[in-house]
Design goal:
- The structure holds two protein chains of two kinds.
- By secondary structure, chain A is an alpha+beta fold.
- Chain A has two helices and four strands; from the N terminus they run βαββαβ.
- Chain A has a single domain, classed as Ribosomal protein S6/Translation elongation factor EF1B (Alpha-Beta Plaits, 2-Layer Sandwich), CATH 3.30.70.60.
- Chain B is mainly alpha-helical.
- In chain B, about 45% of the residues lie in helices and about 0% in strands.
- The radius of gyration of chain B is 20 Å and the shape is elongated.
- The chains are: A alpha+beta, B mainly alpha.
Chain lengths: ~110, ~90
């Protein structure tokens, strides 16, 4: 069992229900492969620093979970086919940092 | 006016001039690494504010000889900058 951080970027033209569906789909995938979700973060709609396949913006979702390497195999297999996703990134970490959220919206 | 300016320059120069080769310099050449030590910030691909400090205006990674980051931390930095680039955060 290792700690992983997983980030996905979805296309801009998805509605709220569609983005929720995408998030739930991957959360279920992690749980189905005996992974344990610790935290999910929503970074919201962000501008890209450069164009990616003619996309200017995207919704960011961030998962922190515990699991074996098989989870990631399954996740990336599903993500490669998924057309609503633009990018994904998995990073293995020693310990989850649950205190700081770099993309939290500042409350005025 | 001109004289006073010249005088100032002269006083500055005298600080850096060495009388002998074996004299220790007054100014420090060595800068400690800003990313290692006790209260150093955490290098992370999500911490864009920190990463942007170590990029040039055109988005290239600055060499450690300019920023005086240690070798270990420079490796960590470049890795996390490349991760942030993949997600189009920087």
């Amino acid at each position: 069992m290792h700690n992983y951080e997983h980030t996905i970027v979805t296309k801009q033209d998805l509605s709220e229900t569609q983005t929720k569906k995408v998030v739930n789909k991957y959360e279920d995938l992690i749980k189905a492969n005996s992974g344990e979700i610790i935290k999910t973060e929503e970074w919201g709609l962000r501008n890209f620093s450069h164009l990616i396949k003619k996309n200017k913006k995207g919704f960011y979702f961030h998962f922190k979970f515990k699991g074996s390497g098989k989870v990631i195999e399954e996740l990336e297999k599903a993500e490669n086919i998924d057309e609503s996703l633009i990018r994904y990134l998995t990073v293995r970490v020693k310990e989850h940092d649950l205190k700081t959220n770099y993309f939290e919206k500042k409350i005025l | 006016m001109k004289r006073s300016k010249r005088d100032k320059k002269k006083t500055k120069n005298t600080k850096n001039t060495k009388l002998s080769l074996f004299q220790k310099p007054d100014t420090k050449f060595f800068k400690p690494c800003p990313l290692s030590g006790k209260d150093a910030p955490v290098i992370d691909y999500k911490n864009i504010k920190l990463l942007k400090r170590y990029l040039s205006d055109s988005g290239r990674i600055l060499p450690s000889r300019v920023t005086s980051v240690s070798l270990k931390k420079q490796k960590e930095l470049s890795r996390s900058i490349k991760r942030a680039r993949l997600l189009a955060l920087i």
